[in-house]
Amino acid sequence: MSDIKTYPVPQQYLEHTLINNAQYESMYQASIDDPENFWAEQARAKIDWEKPWDSVMNVDYKKAHIRWFEGAELNVCYNCVDRHLASKADQTAIIWEGDDPKNDLSITYRELHQKVSRFANLLKSRNVKKGDRVCIYMPMIPEVVYAMLACARIGAIHSVVFGGFSPESLKSRILDSDCQVVITADEGLRGGKTVPLKKNADKALEGCPNVHSVIVVKYTQADIAWQESRDVDYYASMEAMSDDCPCEIMSAEDPLFILYTSGSTGQPKGVLHTSGGYLLYAALTHQYVFDYHDGDVYWCTADAGWITGHSYIVYGPLANGATTLVFEGVPTYPDAGRFWDVVDKHQVNIFYTAPTAIRALMGQGNEFVNRASRSSLRLLGTVGEPINPEAWEWYHQVVGETRCPIVDTWWQTETGGILLTPLPGATQLKPGSATRPFFGIEPALLDSDGKTVEGAGSGALVMARSWPGQMRTVYGDHDRFISTYFSQYPGYYFTGDGARRDEDGYYWITGRMDDVLNVSGHRLGTAEIESALVLHESVAEAAVVGFPHDIKGQGVYAYVTLMSGVDPSDALKQELIKLVNQEIGPIAKPEMIQWSPGLPKTRSGKIMRRILRKIASNELDNLGDTSTLADPSVVEQLIKHRLNQ
Ligand code: PRX
């Protein structure tokens, strides 16, 4: 791959960085040679423990038994808030930038401590105890951070559900983890539009009889329905709460949160993360990957409803005593210059976003970027999907004016934190590559026989050993945890992604190997979308695949077979789109719906998705073997009627 450009570490990083190349090499080696010692040292340096551990790690991938720092005790909220009060009480913890550029706030660590303590007492007043599950369905306002930390403070397990999810999705997540308390707002604001969160929650809760309390932040003061016995007015109740709420002492392996994510089969799974290892891993990666120095202003544009928001807006940065920016809006409102205006306004030094946003902004022209100075920026990051070299170059040259390294960070909800990434002071960059493993991470590539690929080559991306931030189980379904991640390649954690390793040992993610789509960095299971489509009485069968999309990375392409006697129509298409919207949320809406009188199936009735994917992607000269199909003529029909893109 000699035509791949490389970018050396910039001079300023050679002079002023936390980890240079020599340090990376030696620390990485130490983390692999003696992981117990490496992680024990990091854990002592980064986290305040109430009680030290009996053992650093206790991992058996065959049983999917993963434990870190057993015997140790700590409180995550204490580590993110209280311990900073001695030296940083007046430092800004959170900069909040509203959807409307006129609205912003600055919250110090002292104020954060007060809000979180009161909120924790409010939860207690509704009888929330250690181990209880609390659902958070919120807009990107500071209260979402208070809510997460308040749960952590009293040992409740939060389950944040992205505010863009539908009532149906919210309901199934509340039920799966039996949340009895929900925290929401009257409405959210995004791009100048309102999101009816309370209304959605009310609808979801019609099917959730165990929910006894709904704490509502009356944010926009919209008219909302109110159930006196169940609904709690957040602002009014906070007034009466005490500022004093001692932190519950938790075991390192006590659950911190559940976060639902899509897999290739069935309902989204509740990824469970625990306290000690997760916090250590989030904090360590945040510091080193973003080269975070005290006083830096750090901005991750994710939503708190995703793992990126958990690890790199809330837990990692706050554990490090950082200033973290919480953004309510979208990249294109009021116009496509918003990100860069906010960078100037708050003098952001480190900026972390998704390739889909970069691609969308790239298409709007450079004047939106150039009207802002961006002189405060020192580092750029991306996450969520592969970044195409063209978008990488634009980000690097136009946004970062070639002085800011780009950290292309590869990780997953399941991994808790970043596993593959450059370190800005240590790693030469190659556009489109997530480069090298973080400390303690041992990636491997396996071929289709499960054999290790040595040197340069491609295969299934697996991890040969555990790291502290790894998920511990699928909530309520450990068998699913084993079968999803540890069965296909025994002895390894299987990521679901394919990757290539080049001659320099750099990793290039090639995308999911399973039936999971990545639409604008959002993870969607094809099975979930299919289940939504077949709910319609006119639909006999549906098969969903992804197709390449210039901005979203992938779009949703649905093949739909109608019941006999039903005529296809545009109106029916709209009904189906609405149905998916209603069942999952707008992010899952099919971009293309192709009426398909038949689907390619094997003689045993299995849909050949490989063929459907190729047709949707317009890779028609490479369909592979179709002779095993029950009716090969179906393929010609599908090709003939495929939708133009
Ligand atoms: O396919 C990979 C892709 O996103 C998947 C994980 O999605 P999720 O759990 O929603 O977490 C996203 C944010 C951490 C991965 O299996 N992915 C994530 N980051 C990258 C990526 N693909 C390529 N390059 C990345 N940097």
UniProtKB/TrEMBL annotation:
Pfam families xref list: ACAS_N, AMP-binding, AMP-binding_C
Database matches in PROSITE patterns: AMP_BINDING
Residues that bind CoA: 190-193, 308, 520
Binding site for Mg(2+): 534, 536, 539
Post-translation changes: Acetylated. Deacetylation by the SIR2-homolog deacetylase activates the enzyme.
Catalytically driven reaction(s): acetate + ATP + CoA = acetyl-CoA + AMP + diphosphate
A GO molecular-function descriptor: ATP binding
Gene Ontology cellular component list: cytosol
GO biological process, one term: acetyl-CoA biosynthetic process from acetate
Chain's role: Catalyzes the conversion of acetate into acetyl-CoA (AcCoA), an essential intermediate at the junction of anabolic and catabolic pathways. AcsA undergoes a two-step reaction. In the first half reaction, AcsA combines acetate with ATP to form acetyl-adenylate (AcAMP) intermediate. In the second half reaction, it can then transfer the acetyl group from AcAMP to the sulfhydryl group of CoA, forming the product AcCoA.
Protein name: Acetyl-coenzyme A synthetase
Source species: Pleionea litopenaei
Taxonomic lineage: Bacteria, Pseudomonadati, Pseudomonadota, Gammaproteobacteria, Oceanospirillales
Name of the gene this protein is made from: acs
